[in-house]
Specification:
The chain is an alpha+beta fold. The protein has one helix at about 20-30, and strands at about 1-5, 10-15. The chain is globular and about 30 Å long.
Amino acid sequence: MLTLSDQGHRLIAIPAVHHRAVFAEMVNRACAAAATRPAAIAVEGV
């Protein structure tokens, strides 16, 4: 997982590659709590 912060904004990048179960677990973990829930989620389609 890669986290970038700039001017109070945060971007969390979770690589999907071939590990879809791991990807889903990391996204769920990031979204589970209101304190860490992102304002938007973008998913790269294959």
